[in-house]
Structure formats: structure tokens, C-alpha cells
Amino acid sequence: MRLGSISKNKTANVCIYFSKEDQVKAFRIGLYGCGCRTRQVLERALKSGMAKVTLCHDIDCGKAGELAEKYHAEPCTLNKFLSGEEVDMYLISLFPAAHPDALLAAAETGKPVYIEKPVAVFMPDVVRLIPLIGKSYVHVGLSYRYLPVFRELARLVKDGKIGELAGINFNWLCNHFTRNQGAGANPNWRYVPETGGELTQHYCHCFEWFRTLGGDFRSLTAMSLKMQDNQSCLEDLWDLIIKQKSGCQISFHSSERNPRYSVHGYLEGTKGSLEWEWNNPSKIIFYKGAHERREGEPLPVPGTVHDALEEFISRIRRGEPPEVTLEDGLWSVLPPIYARESAATGNVSIFPERLTDLLKGAKE
């Protein structure tokens, strides 16, 4: 499969075009990282025949060999992997702090890149990746656009179901802690500071969804709590208040101590509100704007949505920009960075007007 011409569309995202004969061939994927998440991302595109794996690379040669055998591909060195031969795209799914270097290296090849979230953990890495915006075809694996309840909520807001969006209430409740377990004792990779903890590596999905609903962020204030028996790097509780440029206000709460195991909240607007829960089953209830108590109207939640990797490949073939861009991915990790700053200082953190403003600050 040969890449056709490369051009920029009006949204400054790189589009890559394929010849007609290439449109029907299985997309050749090079795997950069061969862990469990890689298999999950690949599943539907491989099953449908839309894609196939040709090369596998991992710092753990055993993992690369295992997936190469599973997918009838070739395990290879990093030099061969990044030569750009035998692949039409790269799928990067590594330890979060390793993502920036991997993305910069893969982007040099000119091939499209699907990179798992978070695209970065620390501000210096965000700054390093900003120059890639609009120059490389990059999709970031932020999944709320591909989860039925969140996709449907975004559609309802866009269609004006609740009028102008005024408030977003979001609650993430779970219970992952093992009491009195010190740093390094938990084998779960999420319990290492270089992942950014749940606030970065998991909740970046939420922050990207908030921005989809209400636009760019203006300011943030945050508080966090760690209990005495929590010896890990993760916080027990987080509470964030985020103001968006549109005027919408976000109230975000997460708990690692709540056995409710639920993600739920409200979207509030000038004409009503939507109560929602992501669970099994998920639900959406519409409350029409009124000055007295009224019973809500249950709304259907679609059962399935597009697969992220299949849509990524389809958009490339149609000459369209990625659904979730590198810019989206970088904005999604700024709230965690600023939340830690705000929680430590007690101050309100102000977001940049645009990402490129961060480049000016880095030079000063």
C-alpha cells in the first residue's frame, strides 16, 4: 500500500490520501508496545478484515514475540520498525511517560499514528509535542466519543435538547486501594508517579469530553485528599471546579474509596437537564426546564457506536482529519497538570488562550 499525496485541510490537520486500489486492502499496522491495551484497540478492526498487524516492537522482546506469533507478524528492532517499511500506520500503546518520545519518533516517518492516552504526563512533554500539531496525522485514544452514553449526551447537547449548556456535574466513584501498601508494592502500573495517576491516565477521557461539550477551558481550582493509610502515589479524593470560556461551569469529583462503582452526573442547561449514568446498564433521563418538580423522561442509550480504530482508518482513506486530534489530546492532560498545581498552592490556575502560548512560556 502506497501513501498518496499529503495536504492540509482548513482545520490545519494533515490529511493523507490513498489510491482507489489501496482503499480495499487491509491496513498494515506496526505495534509500538505489545501490552493488553494494544489487543483491545485492535480487536474489531482485525476481526472485520480492515487491518492486519505486520510489525511488532516492544522493550520486552518476549511480548513483541508473543503478539507477532498471535497476529502472524514479525517482531523487529526499533530501527527497522521506524524505517516506515511494511506498515501504513503506527499504533502506540506504552507506559504513559514513554508516549512523547515514541510519538516524536513515529511522526518522523510521515505515517499516520494512533496513540493511546495520555499523550503526555508532564508539562515539558506537552511543550515538546505542540510543534507536531497540524504537521502529523495523529489520533489520540480518548474513548468517551466512542462510548454510547457519552456520545449520545454530546449529541443531545449539540442538538439543543437542554438549551445553552450551563453546568456539568461529573462523579467517578470506585474503590481501588489496598490499605497500607507502600510505593512499589502494588504491581499495577497505574500506581507509579510517571503515569500521572488516575487523575491523568484515566480522567483525561473526562476532560476531553468536557471540552467537546462546552469548549476550551478558562480556569481551574482543585483540592485533593490522601488518607493516613494510603501510602501510594494516588490521591483518595479529587474535587475540581473548571470554568470554560463559554461560561459553562464544571464540577468534577472522583473517589478511590467509594464502593458504589459508578460514573454519573448531570448536564444542566437553560431549557432543562440530563441526568446520566455510565454503568451496566447506562441511562439518560431528561428533565424539562420548569419551576416545579416534574418526573423525568428516560431517553434511549444507543447500544453500539463506531470502533475508534476502524473510524481512524476510514477517515484516513476518506482524506478526513482524525476524530480526536493531537491538540485534543494535549488539552486533555492540562487539567491534571493544573489541578496538582492548584491543590499544592491553593491558587486558581489559568489555562493558556491557545496551546502555542505554552511555547512562549517555555522560552522565557
Shape: globular
Average per-residue pLDDT, rounded, comes to: 89
Strand content: 25-35%
Query: How helix-rich are the residues, as a percent range?
Result: 25-40%
**Main beta sheet, described?**
9 strands, mixed
Content-based structural category: alpha/beta
The low-pLDDT segments are 1-12
Question: Mind telling me the C-alpha Rg?
Answer: 21 Å
How would you spell out the order of helices and strands? EEEHEHEHEHEHEHEHHEEEEEEEHHEH
Count of DSSP strands: 17
Account of the protein in words:
With 364 residues, the protein is an alpha/beta fold. The protein has eleven helices and 17 strands. 30% of the residues lie in helices and 29% in strands. The radius of gyration is 21 Å and the shape is globular. Mean pLDDT is 89; it is low at 1-12. The strands form three sheets. It has a nine-stranded mixed beta sheet with strand order 16-15-14-13-9-12-11-10-17.
